[in-house]
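Meet our chain:
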Amino acid sequence: MSDESPFEPREPRRITGRAPEPPDRRRPVRRQSRARGGDGQGSGRRLLVLVALAGLGLALLLVILFVPPIALIGGNDDEADATLATAVEEDRGRQIAASTRSRMPDVPEHLRAASLLYDLSVPPILPGPFAITLRLIQPTQDQRNLGAYTYRDGAWERITAALLTDEGAGARVELEVVPSNLAILRRLQFQDTVTGRLPAGAEIAVEALNVLTIINPVGFTPAEDASLLGRVEALPPDVTQPVYPVVFAGEPEADIINTVIASSQLRRQHINNILLMVQTGRHDGVDIDYQVISTALRDAFSEFITELADQLHRDGRGLSLTVPLPRRDASGVDEGAYNFTALGAAADLLKLVVPRDQSVWAETLAAGMPRVLERVPSEKVLLTLSPYSVEKSLQGFRLLSQREALGLASELSVREAGPILTNQRVTLVGENIFLDAGASGLFWDRFANMVSFVAPQQTDEPVTVWVENRFSIAFKLEVVAQYELGGLALEDVSGTEETANLWEVITSFLESGEALLVMPNPELLVPVWEADVGELSGSGGAGWVVWETPTIPDDYEVRLIVSDGDVRVGHGLTIAVEP
């Protein structure tokens, strides 16, 4: 990877930490019982975002295995070998050999072959990454559950997701290293249940369609007369998963839903209105998320869920229930308003929500999960996971995208008051990672198993930010394996670019039954400082550097780039240097 700045064509001055070392690794956890394959005067700011992908700065080698009439791998039965057209630095004389297997190895019951198996031979002089398109046995517009697999040591191993070409005759994958053989397989089903919430007005992520078994569009809330307010939008026609719309009551609706549950008449009306919504919408079930029920209504809520489930089941429909995980208090483990024995008997799925506070996430789960599993069959229990990072302050908790969280860590300012002159030593600080001001800098929180940083505030209580990414989500998936739960419930499955991309980690876990616990390389958590012109010195890792301004007056940019080991995000600050 080039050390040049990705922001400007000029070579920057930069301060970094030591050379990176391999990531810290722990053994994967396998599920035992499930066998599964201060700007200063004249200054301005701008936000710069980089996705830290392997191979950044290299030209993408496009590899197309072709046989007329379309440029896709495959061909007629008489043609055993195919060649691949390549273009690397305008040299077209190098080729990759590809041949079809005369016999397809046996495919497990939960998979189906979507292409033939091709043996590949890659010349070592060809650099990656590679984009490879394989012809499918039958053209399709069904994107669900397609993946690139290699056959090794008598078993199929999933490499990555595969995306259909526009015409649906092939599937495309991007690889850093080309395996000795490659095929496109379609997963028929996971053993796990995987539900996903789709916020109102959002589009579902393409990758989600390869994972989800139930989709939960959000849009309904209870009204004072026990009716339902809101609507859910129709899903794209290629979505074939069962749909359970969410009926949600949060703090603003707490008084309303508690009044409804407290009245036997309103309860019956509410049940009838929910049934009407499900039937008229031709939905497969409903998800009830009432986490604000008063403890005094524990029995009434159990009766409500039991009757609703009975009516739905008579009509061949399902019920999932989202509830908070029991918490430990002075008297023991408190279930609050939720009788898990009754609720677990009535509902088809029980989605457990763990507190936002990541400092007590593991502790709360360890206290509450055994209590739930004593009362509810584990195959009914789903663990709720979120793609969002969390900020904790005196005002409470705030959800952030991965890039928003890192954006906070990359904010920078100038300590000296303007004007900034030529040949001046200027102190630049990371406002939220400046150690001398009480910040922690980015670090791996071994209690939360997340990248985190603590930022000083004007109040006595600092702000703590936990960054959710592909490393931290694996530690949460470990819980699903540890307790042999029925699966997971994803809080948001919209296709936004800002949130952490967790799909590869989740898919790999579901297919292998393993949670590969990998911590990010600590050297990647060290901030990087850059300047267009002028020398940088000081302690960049401590959140500050000294910039020696150039001798020529002009506008110059300095930058602070941070990383959680997964993506990089930077802020740029333009400083007017005066004579």
Remarks:
- Residues 264-280 form the longest helix (17 residues).
- The helical segments are 254-262, 264-280, 298-314, 340-346, 361-373, 402-409, 470-482, 503-512.
